[in-house]
Amino acid sequence: MKVREFIDRIGMKVWTGNNEGLENNIKGVYACDLLSWVMSHAQKGDAWITVHTNLNIAAVAVLTEVSCIIVPEDIIVEQDTIKRAENEGVVILGTSLSTYEICCRAYEYGIGL
């Protein structure tokens, strides 16, 4: 599933992301807030769910080549992070859903199966 389609199905806010990034394929979902763990376990093409909003999430996203970052529970993303993500071509999305709810929706839509 493309990031754009997942956005439309859930109704997520796009914090950062251009047309190219919104066409990324989501191959799986990875939910974790320990950045060092994400760096060693997230897979290329995963949609990464995290409550972190600091600059480091953009760097981790680039390193791991995740398809996008999803910030749950209407958490506000820091402006410095938005600028860094835009410069790096990282897609950051936001939603009112919890991490659990996002994972359930991804499963319902066949992501990662």
From TrEMBL:
InterPro entries for this protein: DRTGG, Ser_kin/Pase_Hpr-like_N_sf
Protein's name according to its UniProt entry: DRTGG domain protein
Organism per entry: Pseudobacteroides cellulosolvens ATCC 35603 = DSM 2933
Gene3D superfamilies xrefs: HprK N-terminal domain-like
Every DRTGG domain range: 10-102
Pfam families with a match to the protein in the record: DRTGG (PF07085)
